[in-house]
Write a structure and sequence with these properties.
Helix content of chain A: 25-40%
Number of strands of chain B: 13
Radius of gyration of chain A: 27 Å
Number of helices of chain A: 21
CATH architecture of the largest domain in chain A: 3-Layer(aba) Sandwich
Radius of gyration of chain B: 21 Å
Number of domains of chain A: 4
Helix content of chain B: 25-40%
Shape of chain A: globular
Largest sheet of chain A: 8 strands, mixed
Distance between the termini of chain B: 80 Å
CATH topology of chain B: Rossmann fold
Number of helices of chain B: 12
Distance between the termini of chain A: 47 Å
Bound molecules: thiamine diphosphate, iron/sulfur cluster, magnesium ion
Shape of chain B: globular
CATH superfamily of chain B: Thiamin diphosphate (ThDP)-binding fold, Pyr/PP domains
Structural class of chain A: alpha/beta
Oligomer: heterodimer
Strand content of chain B: 15-25%
Number of strands of chain A: 25
Structural class of chain B: alpha/beta
CATH superfamily of the largest domain in chain A: Pyruvate-ferredoxin oxidoreductase, PFOR, domain III
Largest sheet of chain B: 8 strands, mixed
Largest interface: A-B, 73 and 60 residues
CATH topology of the largest domain in chain A: Pyruvate-ferredoxin Oxidoreductase, domain 3
Strand content of chain A: 15-25%
CATH architecture of chain B: 3-Layer(aba) Sandwich
Order of helices and strands of chain B: HEHEHEHHEEEHEHEHEEEEHEHHH
CATH class of the largest domain in chain A: Alpha Beta
Chain lengths: 607, 342
């Protein structure tokens, strides 16, 4: 039941394409396709082939279109790729548009009754009687719907030559312990596979072959990685208010905490997770906890960040440690809540009124989500200030391949906290005095048994002793010390990842999840004889590496996922003398940035 | 040589519980409440370093600076002290928390946080210094101003008041009292009782603003409150460390035993009010509004309700004090998690 128009045959005859293509599965959200897609992706991964998965989903619970894309790439590129080679068009609502979007010669697997062959004759169609097959898979109507998803797994497995053993493995993992579900799903895969074997004549060039590029690797989403980083950083108070795409940070953290931080004997928790009434409260709770000595965090997305503004400024001005995770989505306002963006950069960095600027960490991979969560807690306590960690929906909610995470090597450090004994030794305690010249004062925790330990925390003007003050000189001392503290932070935040190409006249700068696309784009540019060096910013404030990098190139491109070129502007402010050397590549349609886009944008400006 | 000042059971004098000099207007009701807070903690013999004082923003919220100098203080942002208190309590549940708020701070901008604090039953003393106006922003009506109460400018308040005590009971509050800054005896007893309570103890204290709301026609003036105050009972507090027994006429006194063994003794008036009866408390508050009465005393108490710390199931050692050996799982835990993700 395959059809193929004349003309596109040549393309298919060009030869086999092994381990380098994208599969897009178009379904309806709430239809249960998620587990089938995971199984498909994991099976390929377990054959040793690098994969990445992206879920493009609507802000809706059931019934709206969803697309899941699996990119299979032997070279390990895991960024989004705009083109799809294999479409599994299961959603009648979008099937026509989906097929129209394919490039000539692509493959389309679809239910026979959709009659998609009429729409695109230059596409290779494999048409499948899904309802008939589903009837074989189960008598239960409800189950049939779910199992339809496993049928396409079987069909694709047969067409691409995915090892059955790996499918068995993945299904086992997906439905851990549920024998009945495992059997049902395996059976559906088998039905699909056998049908394909008997009825489809393989005419497309795509297939998988085992490699050894994923051995020892893990697959994880960025939010789970953030949760793990927080778990191993010893977080004790977690506050949150649900919001896509950040909810799964705290949801997964709760699971990890319950598994690893409840005392086996007493049954007591060494943590508290509070689902707050809103983000105003979530940040207030986290600040209260940080002030009283807990390792505190909150996690949110754009709208929540807006609500946290006043309290974040309070935390900056009164110097309270807290970690704020912002899994960015598209704004302003509700924006596109299930699409990705890097547009909270400036607002998070300067959140609140008055002169404020915050330390911001910018993880560029799941491994960095894990590591930087840990670093954020250390920095927040070292600098006694709110620290932001900015990830995004693409990094946070999608599955990524990674090396396993490393256990922390450094002990937890709580920063400059004075005990009663310390006060006795020092003979004095003044909350806001710059004793060490680094801008970082000492603090005490409530409950410290010393007559001099107490101080009064206030968002109004205060002197070194934390006393109320409106004196100009006290305000200047305070603001200048806070500035000094911020400058000190330059020496302690993560340094950028720099890769220098000696032949390069131009540089590329990016941050966060744009990294995947930029890495791939640099290779594409190289093929086009444009050598590039690359600096990936990992934190604000910038470190000295940035100036060096820009100085040593004719000009640089700042690649980012927002409309206003926020990172470019921050870099221009940082390096005003070189402002004209700093160009921009911006991607902001809500989809993750892809390599071809970056390459084209740079080539265009290099012409 | 002057005689040493008297001391309490932990050897501290009243002075040790004082704060910085007040900067409020002379005669402000809030200062009268501050004096009773100092007295209550002194008489309870609380370790000052084990107290955390919190507040929002307003004249009332400034007052934690004027008591308990030896306690850590947190003057937060407008209306959001409850969230801070919730976080503090999670970090260190050994602290005794006292929060001071205003009627603007609690009934307007902070109404949401107040509700959720009460709903969670976060253990703390929560005082609303209620003057019916925003003192610090110069006298605008607040949401507790009575219908028809007159502003200094002569304008009449056109909206009905929010009764924070009624609301607190509705939200499941386990300790609800109302008092008057001009009734120090009752107020100090209520404060001490609140200190023995395990849960949120809300005390709404009518605290006249002498600058903006103390004139004829105001229902939150000293004169009005003094004339109208009707105590529901004569309130006594007997701390666990000095159990004295006094003989009362049978049936004339109701005793409520607190968690720490302290007792509240309620000497009945002709009203015969039982503060453990929730429905009656609600009805009494409603009727008081209808009859334009100003009832004070312990409106409601429920010593059986679980507090938030118990619900959160944290261990005895405060989370803030846990060592790395407890808060960072071992490497084997990470290895196990990684293996599952392969
Ligand atoms: C977010 C915010 N909005 C407005 C203000 C201005 N403001 C300061 S105090 C106050 C009202 C305080 O009233 P209340 O809580 O009744 O305290 P009082 O001064 O009467 O004791 C207002 C509106 C503020 N500080 N913060
Ligand atoms: S303005 Fe009113 S509330 Fe504020 S200090 Fe003066 S009297 Fe007190
Ligand atoms: Mg007021």
């Amino acid at each position: 039941m395959n059809t193929l128009a004349e003309g596109s045959k040549e393309k298919l005859e060009q030869g086999r394409v092994v381990n380098d293509f994208s599969i897009q599965i178009a379904t309806v959200n709430g239809s249960g396709s998620q587990s089938s897609n995971s199984v498909l992706m994991r099976s390929i991964f377990q054959m040793g082939i690098p994969v990445s998965g992206k879920n493009l989903f609507p802000s809706n619970i059931a019934g709206l279109p969803t697309w899941f894309t699996i990119r299979v790439n032997k070279d390990g590129y895991i960024a989004r790729k705009a083109e799809t080679e294999i479409l599994i068009a299961m959603n009648p609502q979008t099937a026509i548009e989906d097929v129209k979007g394919l490039s000539s010669g692509a493959v389309c697997i679809s239910p026979v009754e959709l009659r998609l062959e009429a729409i695109r004759t230059d596409v290779l169609h494999y048409q499948v009687p899904f309802s008939e097959l589903a009837a074989k898979a189960s008598e239960n109507m409800k189950l049939r719907k779910l199992l339809t998803n496993m049928l396409y797994v079987g069909i694709v497995a047969e067409l691409l030559n995915i090892e059955h053993a790996q499918i068995e493995n993945s299904i086992g993992k997906q439905f851990e312990g549920k024998t009945k579900a495992i059997d049902l799903n395996l059976n559906a895969v088998k039905i699909g596979r056998e049908w394909a074997k008997e009825n489809l004549k393989k005419q497309d060039p795509y297939s998988v072959e085992p490699m050894n590029k994923t051995q020892g690797k893990i697959i994880i989403d960025g939010n789970a990685a953030t949760a793990l980083g927080s778990l191993f950083a010893g977080v004790t108070v977690v506050t949150w208010y649900p919001i896509t795409p950040s909810s799964s940070v705290c949801e997964q953290l709760i699971d990890y905490l319950k598994a690893h931080r409840v005392d086996k004997e007493s049954g007591k928790a060494s943590f508290a997770v509070i689902q707050a009434e809103d983000e105003l409260a979530a940040i207030g709770m986290a600040l209260g906890a940080g002030w009283a000595g807990a390792r505190a965090m909150t996690s949110t997305s754009g709208p929540g960040i807006s609500l946290m503004a006043e309290f974040t400024g309070y935390g900056y001005f009164t110097e309270i440690p807290v970690v704020i995770f912002d899994v960015q989505r598209v704004g302003p306002s509700t924006g596109l809540p299930t699409r990705t963006s890097q547009a909270d950069l400036i607002s998070a960095h300067t959140l609140s009124h008055g002169d404020t600027k915050h330390i911001v960490l910018l993880p560029g991979s799941v491994a960095e989500c894990y590591e930087m969560a840990g670093e954020a807690f250390e920095l927040a306590e070292k600098f006694q200030t709110p620290v932001f960690v900015l990830t995004d929906l693409d990094l946070g909610m999608n599955n990524w391949m990674s090396d396993p995470f490393a256990y922390p090597t450094k002990p937890i450090s709580r920063g400059k906290v004075m005990t009663a004994e310390d006060i006795n030794k020092a003979g004095t305690f003044e909350r806001y005095r710059d004793v060490d010249g680094d801008g970082i004062p000492y603090r005490t925790l409530p409950g410290t048994d010393h007559p001099q330990a107490a101080y009064f925390t206030r968002g109004s003007g205060h002197n070194e002793k934390a006393g109320y003050s409106e004196k100009p000189e006290d305000y200047l001392y305070l603001m200048d010390r806070l500035e000094r503290k911020y400058q000190t932070a330059r020496n302690f935040v993560p340094v950028p990842a720099v890769s220098i190409d000696k032949d390069a006249k131009i540089g590329v700068i990016a941050f966060g999840s744009s990294d995947f696309a930029v890495q791939e784009s640099r290779d594409q540019l190289k093929v086009a004889n444009i050598a590039t060096s690359y600096l990936r910013v990992k934190a604000l404030p910038f470190t000295a590496d940035l100036r060096k990098f820009v100085e040593s190139h004719d000009h640089v491109y700042v690649v980012e996922q927002n409309r206003d070129a926020q990172m470019r502007d921050l870099i221009r402010l940082e390096l005003p003398d070189m402002a004209m050397k700093i160009r921009s590549v911006k991607h902001y349609d809500g989809l993750p940035i892809d390599a071809r886009f970056v390459t084209d944008a740079i080539m265009e400006q290099e012409r | 040589m002057t005689a040493a000042p008297p001391t309490n059971r932990i050897g501290l004098s009243l002075n040790d519980y004082k704060g910085a000099p007040s900067t409020l207007c002379d005669g402000c009701g809030h200062d009268a409440i501050t004096a009773q807070i100092i007295k209550a903690f002194y008489e309870l013999g609380t370790e000052p370093h084990m107290v955390a004082k919190l507040s929002g923003i307003g004249c009332s919220s400034k007052t934690p600076a004027y008591f308990l100098n030896r306690s850590h203080g947190f003057n937060s942002v407008h209306g959001r002290m409850p969230s801070v208190a919730t976080g503090v309590s999670m970090a260190n549940h050994n602290l005794t928390m006292i929060g001071v708020s205003g009627d603007g701070d609690t009934a307007s901008i902070g109404l949401g946080q107040f509700c959720h604090l009460v709903r969670r039953n976060v253990p703390m003393i929560y005082i609303v210094e209620n003057n019916g106006v925003y003192g610090l922003t110069k006298g605008q009506f607040s949401a507790t101003a009575d219908l028809g109460s007159k502003a200094k400018s002569g304008v009449l308040n056109e909206l009905p008041p929010i009764d924070l005590c009624g609301l607190a009971i509705e939200l499941g509050c386990s300790f609800v009292g109302r008092s008057f800054a001009g009734d120090p005896k009752q107020l100090v007893a209520l404060l001490k009782a609140a200190g023995s309570h395990r849960g949120t103890a809300v005390i709404d204290v009518i605290s006249p603003c002498v600058t903006f709301n103390n004139h004829e026609g105001s229902t939150k003036s000293y004169k009005y409150a003094k004339e109208m105050e009707t105590p529901l009972h004569e309130l006594g507090y007997v701390p666990f460390f000095e159990q004295i027994s006094v003989d009362y006429e049978p049936g004339s006194v109701q005793e409520v035993e607190m968690h720490d063994g302290s007792k509240i003794r309620l000497k009945k008036t002709e009203r015969d009010y039982d503060p453990t009866d929730e429905i009656n408390a609600v009805v009494t508050i409603k009727k008081a509004h209808a009859n334009k009465e100003f009832l004070t005393g312990l409106l409601y108490i429920n010593e059986t309700k679980e507090d938030f710390i118990t619900i959160m199931n944290v261990g005895d050692a405060p989370l803030a004090t846990l060592p790395e050996s407890v808060t960072r799982p071992p490497k084997s835990a990470l290895d196990h998690i990684m293996a599952e993700l392969m």
